[in-house]
Amino acid sequence: MSATAAAPAPAANASWTQRAGLVAAFAALVLILLLPPAAGLPHAGQVMLGILAFAVIVWMTEALDYAVSAVVIGALMIFGLAFMPDAAKPGGPAMGTGAALNLALSGLASSPVALVAAACFIAAAMTATGLDRRIALLVLSRVEARAHQIVIGAMVVGFLLSFIVPSTTARVACLMPIMMGFILAFKVDKRSRFAALLVITAAQTASVWNVGIKTAAAQNMVAVGFVEKQFGSTITWTEWFIAGAPFSALLTVALYFIMTRMMKPEMDEIAGGRAAIRQQLSELGPMTAREWKLLALVLALLGFWSTEKVLHDFDTTSTTIAAIALMLMPRIGVMDWKASQRGFPWGTVVLFAVGISVGTALLRTQAAAWLANLIVHHLGLQNAGAFAILMLLSIFLVVIHLGFASATALASTMIPIVISVLGAVQTPGINVIGMTMLLQFVVSFGFILPVNAPQNMIAYGTDTFEARDFVRTGLVITLAALALLVLFGLTYWSWMGYMTKPG
Q1: DSSP of 11-53, one letter per residue?
Q2: Looking at the DSSP assignment, which residues form a beta bridge with residue 85?
Q3: Within 13 Å of residue 287, how many CA atoms lie on the same side as its CB?
Q4: How open is the CA angle 321-158-181, to the nearest 5 degrees?
């Protein structure tokens, strides 16, 4: 899933932007708390808007490590809400630290958080056994040693790994060393257009399939978590796939043509290319028993995910936790606890949980509803059609994503507001759950800047391309994605009832 925890920088080496960001975040918090009470906004809601402003500024400027920011935000929620009356009981006694603590930790009780943590174990198992690398090399060993064919092979690998490695960062982290190994083995210049084409395309493919596969990215679990809390309903793996996979498939085709035209490689055929790939594959040796067991487990898990509510009633989180239990069992498992903890991104899990808590508190304190009414009024969405609402909010999300380095943070901030906006409009028959899912697709559109997603930064870290190469291709990919939004909004998604419920 889309990782969110960046490596913490020593305080002494914090950049001017980070220091200024932290000061601005606290200033925004204090300013909002000192403002006169707004009509229709409970005191607890005003506190949460201040904390929301703090979180947005900290996340946009990366003033704090993401895991640290989660702890700080949790502390602000506890002591900020403790002295406020419950929004459901205006004029009543203060909530106290006990009730505020329960709200601040409510995200930890969310099933999507358990799924995110479990997904990190699957990614760790893939790395520990080397199964992800073997799958990548097997696919690439079967393509022709031509530049465009190798790019297609890399895209196919990214697509396949999206099903069985539920971590965008883990997928790209697996692919980058393989891509760099090819560049070295092919004796291609590291700063060539071919190298840039291969690396950027691999990273962008990972982002594209975050849209189509529910379990491919943590930010998807944010949306599902809020839907479950707010409506007591869920979006199954298959429902998500039916809605998003056709979009991702067409965007993948567009991605191929955009990248191969804008980053046209210097050569067509690569001498000894297939031999180099097969040599790397042969160095892995035959598949081990651990790899076979892990492959069987993830395929079985994929089967359970895709047949939820069709052949059985086991939800995605429950089946994933059961699979993790089997992976860690002695003798029948594939790794022990120590192996699973090597590089385990607990910061990602903590941030994810606190993000859910912030969103839940925004909804419970009526802050999200109050903010949504402002958005609906100023954008004139009261009586707008579902398509107009989809496009306006999509453009808003694409623009605001430019300031975020984490789609999970963006989803945690914006999805509760999106749900409230959709609940505030007067569009007849609008499908709030379906529209929330479609707008969550847009949250994954981190195509423009290297800093918009951890997978982009991993690719940028290979030093195979300039930031401007990523930006200029990313802008065109984003325009293609928005064009597909228009097409799907007017046709497929409308026909399927995701935007408005059939009358």
Answers
A1: GGG--HHHHHHHHHHHHHHHHHHHSPPPTT--HHHHHHHHHHH
A2: 94
A3: 15
A4: 115
Is residue 445 within 8 A of residue 478, CB to CB? The reply is yes
DSSP letters along 342-361, please? TT--HHHHHHHHHHHHHHHH
Nearest Cα neighbor of 250 from 414, 411, 491, 502 is 491
Residues 6+ apart with CB under 8 A from 484: 247, 250, 251, 254
Q: Which residues pair with 476 in a beta bridge?
A: none
**How far is residue 422's CA from residue 425's CA, in Å, rounded to a whole number?**
6
pLDDT, tens digit only, all 503 positions of the chain = 544 333 334 444 457 878 899 999 999 999 999 999 888 899 999 999 999 999 989 888 888 888 899 999 999 999 999 999 887 777 778 888 888 999 898 888 778 788 888 888 888 888 889 888 888 888 888 877 788 888 999 999 999 999 988 888 888 888 888 888 777 777 778 889 999 999 999 999 999 999 999 999 889 988 998 998 889 889 999 999 999 999 999 999 999 999 999 999 887 777 666 777 788 888 889 999 999 999 999 999 999 999 988 889 898 889 999 999 999 999 889 999 988 888 788 887 888 888 888 888 998 899 988 988 888 888 788 889 999 999 999 999 998 888 787 788 889 889 999 999 999 898 899 999 999 999 999 999 999 988 788 888 889 888 899 989 999 999 999 999 999 999 999 999 999 999 998 76
Cα 157 to the center of its chain, rounded Å: 19
Per the structure block, which two tokens stand in for 48? 């949460």
Q: Compute CA distances 234 → 222, 268, 309, 318, 442, whole Å.
A: 12, 47, 11, 14, 19
Half-sphere CA count of 54, side-chain side, radius 13 A? 27
User: Going by C-beta distance under 8 Å and a sequence separation of 6 or more, which residues neighbour residue 116?
Assistant: 1, 218, 221, 348, 349, 352
Percentages (nearest 5) of helix, strand, coil residues in the chain = 70, 0, 25
Q: How far apart are CA 492 and CA 214, in angstroms?
A: 19
